[in-house]
Amino acid sequence: MKILGSVFLLLTIQLGQAFAATTDLATIPLATASPSVVKPNLMFVLDDSGSMGWDYLPDNVNDNKTCKPQTACTNGMPPFYAGQFNGVFYNPQISYAPPVNADGTSMAAQVSPWTAVKVDGFGVASTGTTNLITGFPEIVYCNTSSTSTADLSNPAKCKRNGIDTTNPFNYQITSGTSATGYPDATFKNQKTKKGTPFYFVISPVEHCSDITLNTCTAATVATAAYPYPAPVRWCNSAANAAAAVPVSGGNKCQATFNSAMSYSYPRYGTFKRTDIVPATASYGPFTYRADCASRTTCTYNEEMTNFANWYAYYSTRVNMMKTAAGRAFLPIDNRFRVGFITINPGSPVQAANYLAINTFDTTQKANWYTKFYSQSVGNSTPLRTALSRVGRHFAGKQDGLNSGMTGDPVQYSCQQNFTILTTDGYWNDNTTPVQVNGTTAIGDQDNVNQTVTPIYSSRATGTYDGGVGGGNTLADVAMYYYKTDLRTSALGNATGALGSDVTENNVLSTTLDFATHQHMTTFTLGLISGLMVYQPDYVTAGTGDFANIKAGTSGACDWVAGICNWPVPAANAPSTLDDLWHAAVNGRGNFYSARDPQSLSDGLAGALAGVSVRAGGGAAAATSTPNITQTDNRVYGSSYRSGKWDGDVTSEQIDAATGAFIPGTAWSAQTLLDGRVQAAADTRTIYTYSSGGASHLKSFDWASLSVAEQAFFSNKCSVWSQCTVTSLTAPEIVIGNDGQNLVEYLRGQYQFDMRATNTSQVFRTRDHVLGDAINAKPVFVKVPQNSFSDAVTPTYDSFKTANATRQGVVYVAANDGMLHAFNTDTGVEMWAYVPKMVMPNLHKLAEVNYASSHQYFVDGSPEVMDVFDAANAAWRTILVGGLGGGGRGYYALDITNPAAPQALWEICSDSTLCGISDTDMGYSYGNPVITKRASDGRWVVVLSSGYNNVSPGTGHGILYVLDALSGAVLNKVDTGTGTIGSPSGLAKFSVWADEASRDNTGKWVYGGDLNGDVWRFDLTTSTPTVVQLAALRDTVAVGQPVTVRPDLGLVNSNPVVFIGTGRFIGTSDLTDTQQQTIYAFRDMGVNLGNLRSRADMVQQTLTQTSATTRTGSNNAVDWAAKKGWYIDLNPSNTSPGERVNIDPILVNGTLLVFSNIPTSSACTVGGESWLYQFNYASGAWPAPVTNQQVSQKISTSLTAGATVVMLPDGTIKAIVTDASGNKSPVNVNASGGGSVTGRRVSWRELTP
Question: What pLDDT shows up at residue 319?
């Protein structure tokens, strides 16, 4: 059972979390984000022809062969009052929700006493009311032509229904036997009786082998061989329709009405009548009725209100369209530009029938609903002209048939233009549709089977008409306005609505909708079917009429002999409905066939979903994360696809001679993991945190979860758009609300996702199991790498020896809510871990519209360190990771034995989720620091308060010191800056250790915040203290935000902090052009204030020498007298918006700094990047350089990150990964000399 009138898919291009006056945090990677300022255009086209006022659907319902007697079937006759036959009539399986207003409130439900139910709930066709208790019409047959009101209810004088017996009864159209019932020779006078409401349900007595309903057997229930019920079949003779035995095969009866081929005789199942009367207390059983308290049965009041709602708001085609479309459009917001027009808007176009496309804000939405709900009907059906009119509108034309359509809808060259064309009947234009110039006929646009790209018309795509059709069809119109560049200088429409050029061919594209020029994408919805049998999954189905057309199957289509081609459309004929389908295929949209309120709701939802997905980011790009980790010559890289939001981890190899990547991969974790799951089973090991047990781990499966944890996954259907808009069946809703099904889906099982092969389709379909890994750097762990000399037993050397053959594992945090552990030899997932604190949000992964509502879950880079467990006298390897934008917390695991991990602790801001909690813990964008506390040698984990640690937090910048193994909070050090309204944003840290690889004793921790303040936390005292070291300010004294981890070094025995400024964490950062700077300054133990204003800070400058190179100055820096140096980015305003958002790397006396310049134009995503190499002591060029060059443009895309390697010949390379996934080795000009200590340089020596 499906529920009508629900909330539609969230049509959002979700870029940022909403925080009032707090830090803007994006929920998708900004480097591949669609430009949020460019809103897609959507024109909704309403059929306002006279037939839209009819109270039956499809047209053949009132045919003279569908009811007995064989005159026009009408109100009061059994077939007319059966929702399975007349799609407009009341169907008791549907909940008829009232329409909604623009503000989301519902119109009045038609409740008791039902004596004044609105005839037209929208008040257009009628403002009157009717008494449904006594005034509902019924046809009866009387034995005299003169009858009184009392006679109509006297069974001796008037008979009703077919044979006037108790339910159920057979309803046959033919006469000649005593079984055919009334009317007969005596009771032959047709009269209309008024009384209480009633309806019929047709129970199938035949089931068929496929959707064509050709091959069938006598059966009242489905079987494996005959699963398709046949409440009504259309036969080619009266004899076949009335045959007592099943009529099967031989093309005698079928699913579709086709009068041209004589398929016009209905073969019904059995009819059961239900009267809605007070004497009947319970109605049903129903599959699912959302309006009834019990859901499966309804009281008299509930049934009567549902019927009255239907009568007022659904009982005509146009009212059904108004109600369903009004509810479907409700969730659309100002991320879209929406307009309205009818197919008969007048000439010139009248304001009453047209609303110009505009941002769908509160005002536009109110205007749209008012205009839509006020439409009346009573015209012809010029669909071809209507679609041409909208196509010309997107071309900016306001002459000819577009006269009166004010306003150019196209603002940007990359803007997408969508049309949803709705109709209930056959087109019958009396004029020829025209091209952009307004005079040339559309012609035949799809009669060529193309083989050369770009392929607009081909057999394989279903667009080719077969070469047998004439021109100027609706499909030709859709094809023309799709394949034609609608904005060119030659057309005289190069300038868009904002006065800028809109001719550049850069429209976002998908595999299906591939055109990058300005075009119209067409979705169509028909309230009737043509000669072809419609399948909702026609796009992917391997069988059926559309599949036969694509394959060119011979002899499979009954409307044409030989090879299957599209039916040749003729005005006022069923073939024009197939032309409507063909138009959607040509226009690279989708076609939806709707014959009742529930399928209409589904179709509108599907069309809007298609618009949403395509507007939500274009093609699913293969985008690599920056973050690669290597051992020997092997590199493990993670990648993701935007839109699809899946990921991969691959093992690649570096050429030891050149540093270049060797083509090919040793394995793909994505492929291997896909092989571990089946529809209803999987072989994965997935853990989550447990407060009990030695390992503090338990299986992430339904049976292992606590009651509180199970609640995170149960009854979530109400928050998914697919439950409330695409109208899942009642069994599907039950499936969705069953938490066990959701947990199994999160494990990768797919028996209930929306792939076409599934019977029950509830959850979002995933192409792959592994989720997107975006901001989290993979971590490789194998043999212990340090040389600790701690005086403990056992020694670190013995620990290294014991683990000399430890299995290599790459740990990857991903936004499927898990940390994954992959065997580096094979790529097989050994296990995964779900932090408990992400559980409350994991249901969002099943949202069908997740493509445009992505969010982060486990997105922080894990850190790994060997620590000594004094209580158990053992060395242990621990991993600590944050959630990034996925939440406010961290988790810690013991991975000493990668085959048997143990959970250590979780800390977060919510005490109901974590055993250790603090309300000042914000979004964990910071990096965990694992070190020995200098004051007592205790192994600790240092964490930051992160971003948006707002209410109930204070917003202050805070450093936490936790016991590494227990997670107990030992210290909480507050900078005292930041507020709830403007939080500090203290995130990334670096720790100072004199010789970290031998003695990882952390003395001081350094970090910067979003205000541009740099802090040092002192771990040498039992109670850590904090001091501000510097204020980073631009030329007008505005704080320069810090979002990177500082690097640390010694210059002439002076501890120096190297840091860059800039942020790229929220959508507002895309267009930020604040001056950003690179600083190197001494730790003086006191606040140096605004470094820029100090005379003892030496400024170096950049000079742009070519499009790809920059040189630097060489002003002397005397560290005995100076505090450091700094250098501003964006020389001579050549790169406004340039900032440092990638951690700088100090290697062998050279400071590597990567800058990014996001493109801020409306139609361009990405940007470009520069790599700076400075002598760490002076900020000038490194020693090996002789031409003063300090910078080179390294990418026409944003840099996502880098890692440093040393080749066997001593050459140092930076492997730079850009946001497009390209990995490029760049030579590092190592300065040499000086003491560079502190945080260990992140590179390893490669071997041949």
Answer: 96
Using the structure block, give the residue that is written with the tokens 């053959």: 805
Cβ within 8 Å of residue 1237, ≥6 positions away: 994, 995, 996, 1049, 1050
Measure the CA–CA gap between 977 and 980, rounded to whole angstroms. Answer: 10
Q: Which fold does the domain 35-52+317-439+453-540+570-615 belong to in CATH? A: Rossmann fold (3.40.50)
**Residue 195, SS3?**
strand
Extended strands (E) in 152-296: 158-160, 169-170, 189-195, 198-203, 206-208, 216-218, 228-229, 232-235, 253-254, 265-268, 270-275, 282-283
Query: Cα–Cα distance between 1123 and 1125 in angstroms, integer?
Result: 7
Residues in a beta bridge with 110 = none
DSSP state of 53: G
Q: Are strands 1124-1128 and 1097-1100 parallel, antiparallel or unpaired?
A: parallel
Q: What is the pTM of this model?
A: 0.75
Angle 362-373/317-329 helices, nearest 10 degrees?
Answer: 170
Tokens found for residue 1059:
């840091």
Which regions in the chain score pLDDT beneath 50? 1-20, 175-179, 614-631, 725-726, 1233-1248
Q: What angle do CA 1024, 1120, 1239 make, to 5 degrees?
A: 45
> What SS3 state is found at 120?
coil
Q: Residue ranges of the alpha helices (H) in 137-273? A: 149-152, 238-242
Interstrand relation of 189-195 and 136-142 (parallel, antiparallel or unpaired): antiparallel
Contact 762/741 with Cβ under 8 angstroms? yes
Residues composing the chain: 1248
CA distance linking residue 961 with residue 258, whole number of Å: 78
What Å distances lie between residue 997 and 350, 379, 658, 838, 865, CA to CA? 79, 84, 28, 34, 11
CB burial of residue 1082 (10 Å; 0-12, 13-18, 19+) = buried
Q: Can you tell me the distance from the alpha carbon of 1157 to that of 36, in angstroms, rounded to the nearest whole number?
A: 18
- The SS3 call for residue 651 is strand
Do the Cβ atoms of 527 and 520 come closer than 8 Å? no
- Parse the chain into domains and list their residue ranges: 35-52+317-439+453-540+570-615, 626-772+816-855, 1032-1248
Q: Are strands 1223-1227 and 1054-1060 parallel, antiparallel or unpaired?
A: unpaired
For strands 1025-1031 and 1013-1018, give the pairing: antiparallel
Q: How far is CA 66 from CA 75, 173, 235, 241, in A?
A: 13, 7, 11, 11
> Among 284, 98, 83, which Cα is nearest to 730's?
284
Write out the two tokens for 720: 């998914």
Cα 322 to Cα 274, 471, 474, 707, distances in angstroms: 28, 33, 24, 44
Residue pair 659/1205 in contact by the 8 Å Cβ criterion: yes
Whether the ω angle into residue 784 lies within 30 degrees of 0, i.e. cis, is no
Contact 472, 441 (CB under 8 A): yes
Q: Residue 694 in contact with residue 684, Cβ under 8 Å?
A: no
Cα 1189 from Cα 963, distance rounded (Å): 46
CB 331 within 8 A of CB 338: no
Joined tokens for residue 483: 């394949």
What is the sign of the dihedral through the CA atoms of 146, 148, 149 and 150? negative
CA distances from 147 to 151, 546, 1224 (A): 6, 54, 93
The DSSP secondary-structure symbol of 1134 reads: S
The structure tokens listed for 153 are 């209810």
